[in-house]
Write a structure and sequence with these properties.
The complex is a heterodimer of chains A (about 400) and B (about 200). Chain A has helices spanning about 20-30, 50-65, 75-100, 105-110, 110-125, 130-155, 165-195, 205-225, 250-270, 280-305, 315-330, 335-360, 365-375, 375-400; strands spanning about 130, 200-205. By secondary structure, chain A is mainly α. In chain A, helix 5 runs parallel beside helix 7 (about 165-195). The longest helix of chain A is centred in the middle third of the chain and has 31 residues, at about 165-195. The radius of gyration of chain A is 24 Å and the shape is globular. Chain B has about 200 residues and is α+β, with helices and mostly antiparallel strands. Chain B has two domains: about 1-30, no CATH class; about 50-190, no CATH class. Chain B is built from five helices and nine strands. Chain B has a four-stranded antiparallel sheet. In chain B, strands 6-7-9 form a three-stranded mixed sheet, with no helix packed on it. In chain B, strands 2-4 form a two-stranded antiparallel sheet. In chain B, strand 6 and strand 7 (about 145-150) form a beta hairpin. The radius of gyration of chain B is 21 Å and the shape is globular. The chains are: A mainly alpha (about 400), B alpha+beta (about 200). Chains A and B meet through helix 2, helix 3, helix 6, helix 7 and helix 9 of A and helix 1, helix 2 and strand 7 of B.
């Protein structure tokens, strides 16, 4: 079905990651596996179930490390190393629990030092910057890392211990702490590089707070403008329309956009989300505005006669092509390009999901099922088409004096 | 790069808003794993006296004297048995397979005061490489419910993933129950850690 591969929309950040930093992270992941056997046999691990899982974890971690070199950019090598390090640490700690009686308690003894590093960073970090949009993206990343570091090192309560005190419990605890270390390393590097790049700097927190209030107000108004629906949209997506056009792919896409908008607006109102979240919330609000605007646009289109029904394989291919064109148009647009690049991967990946869905299907597939599955091609197309305009609106709000 | 299943990806999409800054290529740094263990019900007992037995040949560990091992293996693809021992006579009728710990089990029965206590015996098949731990038990005059945590046996226990043992648990309940009144037995197990009524998040 897929004539061209699903687009891999590279993530970007307006901070130049030092190649040597990414390389050091990769090396750290590799070194964690240095003392770990390539394969565990019954002499090393007599328990067959533990051996099977440990070999799986070992293979997976080595694959994660191997894939670092495949990443096309320095940033993506860093992200891949960030994934590989906790996995490698988990294998190493699990094996040491078996081979040399490492305990979870011993692993957790490193927690205070990790927490101290996190809080040391938190005390020196603030919402500084020059261009507010650039700063928004950088600080959103840092916020995420800071919350992540605190979460991973915060507790090791029984709720989180899937494997108890056994070797996999030791590995699990070690992996959690390695995630915290990774977040510490990344946010320190990002902030240092960002600071270093600034010619002038000011405190942008008041401006970002104002922008967040403005965007929340917009989200509130747009969500209230969505139609009230009593029906179960999983069963009757056409309840969103004034006329009955049947459950076409376009109607399923409409339902998906409606549900995404409502659900994500709800998340936005969640007061329990850990702070700091100021910059993240601005990006989140922008994402909600994208889905709401895409919903409005698609609904008008269907109400005006384009039912977007899938009646042939060619129609499916055309929908996919349309999505790819929309992604490419968003990627190459010059309107608020930084924010678009920030948000585009979220929407572009609907194409990959749908490709995977089709790749995993076999045998007879009902027309209704196809209509529902290809809806995500439409979701990708519609969101990517409106993304530049919505991102531009957010950029204006953030830059308003 | 391993692709996420669609289901997983949709779960991420539902929660993507809280992960937005990290986008989809970063580890999910601001999330924490989903808890797997649930708290015991208020009327449950979390640490009653118990004895665990294990039969590596895959047949029942404990039987009443009128049962045979052959009956058991022929009729039960997935063995799950429960016996309520409410008096000394019933205890004397129990027949144990020749497995490690039988003497301890017999002594456990002898030490039970059937005027105020009851022994509940539950046995089931379990993978050879796994161990089962009782998290809690609760009862009424007509029902008994147990909850277990399944985990791995020690790494140096030689075992195969395709083989099953039968494990039996003898648990002493601090109540004299009437075995004729017990009509419902239920049990569940999970991989999460056992929780107690008072367990809170541990900190380092």
């Amino acid at each position: 079905m897929a004539s061209k591969p699903a687009p891999s929309v590279s993530e970007t950040l307006p901070v130049t990651v030092e190649p040597s930093f990414a390389a050091a992270q990769a090396e750290a992941a590799r070194q964690l596996l240095d003392d770990v056997p390539r394969t565990f046999d019954s002499d090393l691990v007599p328990n067959g179930a533990i051996r099977k899982r440990l070999n799986y974890l070992n293979d997976s971690a080595r694959e994660q490390v191997r894939e670092i070199e495949d990443a096309p950019t320095t940033l993506e090598r860093l992200w891949q190393a960030s994934r590989a390090r906790p996995d490698a640490r988990e294998v190493r700690a699990t094996w040491r629990a078996i081979d040399s009686d490492l305990t979870r308690k011993e692993v957790r003894e490193e927690t205070p030092e990790i927490r101290a590093t996190t809080e040391e960073f938190a005390s020196r970090w603030s919402y500084i910057g020059d261009d507010p949009v650039r700063a928004l993206r950088v600080h959103a990343e840092i916020e995420s890392d800071l919350v992540g570091a605190r979460n991973w090192a915060a507790s090791d309560g029984r709720d989180h211990r899937q494997f108890g005190d056994g070797p996999f419990g030791v590995g699990e605890a070690a992996s959690r702490l390695e995630r915290a270390r990774v977040d510490n390393d990344v946010m320190n590097h990002m902030f240092d590089r960002f600071q270093h790049s600034l010619e002038t700097t000011s405190d942008l927190k008041p401006r970002l707070e104002t922008a967040r209030r403005t965007l929340y107000g917009r989200v509130q108004r747009r969500i209230e403008s969505l139609p009230d629906v009593d029906a179960d949209l999983h069963e009757s997506p056409s309840a969103l329309l004034d006329r009955n056009v049947g459950d076409t792919a376009g109607v399923w896409a409409l339902a998906r956009l409606y549900q995404e908008s409502e659900r994500n607006a709800l998340v936005l109102r969640n007061a329990d989300d850990p702070e700091p979240a100021l910059a993240r919330r601005i990006l989140e609000a922008t994402a909600v505005l994208v889905t709401v605007r895409a919903f409005d646009r698609l609904r008008s289109r269907i109400e005006n006669g384009d039912e977007m029904s899938v009646e042939s394989a060619e129609a499916v291919v055309a929908l996919r092509e349309n999505a790819l064109e929309a992604i490419e148009a968003a990627r190459t647009n010059e309107l608020a390009s930084g924010l678009v690049r920030e948000l585009l991967p979220q929407f572009a990946r609907y194409v990959r999901w749908t490709d995977e869905e089709f790749a995993n299907q076999s045998g007879a597939i009902s027309v209704r099922s196809v209509e529902r599955d290809v809806a995500d091609y439409i979701v990708a197309a519609e969101t990517c088409r409106v993304l530049p305009a919505v991102a531009s609106d957010t950029a204006k709000v953030v830059r308003e004096p | 790069m391993p692709s996420r299943s669609r289901r997983r990806a949709l779960q991420v999409a539902a929660g993507y808003i809280s992960l937005l800054a990290g986008c989809n290529s970063r580890p999910d740094s601001s999330t924490t794993p989903t808890p797997t263990a649930r708290s015991p019900p208020n009327d449950a007992v979390t640490d009653p006296p118990t004895v665990n037995l294990r039969n590596p040949d895959g047949s029942a560990v404990v039987m009443n004297s009128d049962e045979t091992t052959e009956d058991d293996t022929e009729s039960d693809d997935h063995l799950w048995r429960h016996t309520l021992v409410a008096d000394e006579e019933s205890a004397d009728e129990l027949v144990f397979a020749d497995v490690e710990g039988v003497e301890r089990a017999r002594q456990f029965l002898v030490d039970t005061d059937f005027g105020t206590e009851t022994v509940y015996v539950e046995q089931t098949e379990l993978g050879e490489c796994y161990a089962r731990e009782l998290c809690w038990v609760r009862w009424t005059e007509s029902a008994i419910e147990t909850s277990y945590r399944d985990g791995y046996r020690d790494a140096d226990v030689a075992c195969d993933t395709g083989e099953d043992d039968v494990v039996a648990l003898l648990v002493r309940l601090p109540v004299a129950l009437d075995s004729d009144q017990i009509r419902r037995f239920s049990s569940n197990s999970g991989s999460g850690g056992c929780r107690t009524h008072t367990s809170e998040e541990e900190t380092a």
